[in-house]
Amino acid sequence: MSEVLNVEELFGSKVFTLGKMKERLPRSVYKEVKCVMDKGGELPLATADVVAKAMKDWAVENGATHYTHWFQPLTGITAEKHDAFVTHPDDEGHMLMEFSGKELIKGEPDASSFPSGGLRATFEARGYTAWDMTSPAFLKEDATGVILCIPTAFCSYKGEALDKKTPLLRSMEAISAQALRIVRLFGNKEATKVVASVGPEQEYFLVDREKYLQRTDLIFAGRTLFGAAAPKGQELEDHYFGTIRERIGAYMKDLNIELWKLGVTAKTQHNEVAPAQHELAPIYETANIAVDHNQLVMETMKKVAGRHGLACLLHEKPFAGVNGSGKHNNWSLGTDNGVNMLDPGDTPNENIQFLLVLACILKAVDTHAELLRQSASDVGNDHRLGANEAPPAIISVFLGEQLEDVVKQLVETGEAARCLDGGKLQTGVSTLPDLDKDATDRNRTSPFAFTGNKFEFRMVGSSDSIASPNTALNAIVAEAFCEAADELEKAEDFDIAVHDLIKKYMTEHQRIIFNGDGYSEEWVEEAERRGLPNIKSMIEAAGTLTTDKTVKLFEKFGIFTKVELESREEIIYETYAKTINIEALTMVAMAGRQYIPAVIKYSKSLADSVIALKEAGADASVQVELLNAVSAKLAAAKDALTRLEKAVAEAGTVDNAKEQAFFYKDTVRVVMDELRAPIDELEMIVDKEMWPVPSYADLTFEV
Ligand code: ADP
Ligand code: MG
User: Is the bond leading into 391 cis (omega within 30 degrees of zero)?
Assistant: First the structure.
């Protein structure tokens, strides 16, 4: 019998939950804290001192020696600097572990070495971290010991957001305020806020760590830069939902335990489409906490992999020729008195509030399609969106048959009298139950799909923070709600006004609805006819951040200033250029020091064999043929290598960040492909014993 896991006890054991606060804080202090959490405002320093002491005591009881302000700079990952609870010893040399309210509330990390996109010159190094009370503190345990992590926002001396959390929190306040106006119009007086909820499904690959360490491309770029396809890929569709192998199962079990301790509701696990690819989905929660937890999920995935002799690859496209990884971002809006604004009920045609919400979302997504696409872009995702793989880079909305029919009726007649019903699914087997059908089938090819009571934004990259997509979603929908509320609040006859507005929005923005196959070439053409944007790359999308339309949107709700947006655009160009530069240099090193020398050895052995065979009077034609083929491809590889070195050197001379990024995309990446091609062909000819790195088959089938 295996050991019984007490999940209920494990869950949240490393989190300073509200429950623990309640136990440990005086009632009045707890009330004050809860009030600030719910309604905003500031905690007086004296109160913060009490909270800090309770938090520290709990942490120390659980083995903590240090604390850190845990934040999310614009690198897309998290940052931490540890400080011990150690204080100055007294005269007798005794030391007391201490932690003050001031230390809890505010930190001052040197901000100069984080990306700021010009927001902060290096000589203005001051940056501040501010405690985010809405996300609970937790303990991280590793070789460093136990560290108390306090989720924080990170700002410059002048108050500009230097992180991903600050704008997200601002966007959550914006959507809450505007969504409240909408529910008030429909008579909901009880709700005091509206919360954006997010459930991100995380895809990942696992490979053997020993093999991983033999591939500098995986180490430096997180993806393979070379590699011939394995004889078998995903074509048999036998990996998706397949039986989980023992080694992977042990990893998943350990991962779940670690996540549960951290209060992450790891819920679903399964094998994904590509060989060696898997998925984990937690239960949805408040956007802010979901973003923090997703960072912890990614970090824990990597950490636990090490313990199992595995390496976890979060890159969007670790292997060419098979599926890459994404992150389905499920999003909905709920009032604090329990109404999911995206729940249509059984008869959506009669649910006017839902229809208005839907109309606003269609308008928001159509108006800001470029921004939404931008929010899901990162360097790795360029290999998925609009490239070899789905989802397409074109934003469209999938509504499903039932809602599409309702929209069609509304657009055509202004009324939606009927509503398609799911009906019963007849299994045709007397011993099986007949099932109630959903009113709508699934669509796996849409980037933005309605799935019953939420939208699923499927474009997000697997390694990326989900902060930006959710900030964008909250902002664009807040804007549409605001515009609708502006009109409806002053309407003389609300019923007529709301009816007209729904019809108007749906008519004007119906071009964004697409229920067909989003992967097809016909859709690309059709989308172009409809005038929908099709932005192919991260750096082509970056400019969207600073268009008048985007600046107006974000400034209106105080989510980003123009300067903050400009800084983010700049960082995108810099990040892109640096990432491709690393990839190119890694290719140069691998080709020059591993592949080409290996091929030369192999040609030498062929040449030796030709000579020996000829001396022996035997037929050497096969060897000669092979030698010629290998030599030709070797020459092509050497030529491309030289050109790649030149291209990288030239890229370094381009001054302007944007121009440099485009040079990497349009010139360097092209030569990278030209170097890869002959090497991958050589991999199929050269003696496997002589090939210097593990193959795709070794990496993905022998985990
Ligand atoms: P599927 O994608 O097959 O529908 P699930 O129903 O398990 O899968 O949902 C996937 C993710 O969506 C999970 O993280 C789940 O918690 C989340 N989710 C479910 N309902 C909502 C909601 N109302 N708002 C946001 N996320 C949700
Ligand atoms: Mg899903």
Answer: yes
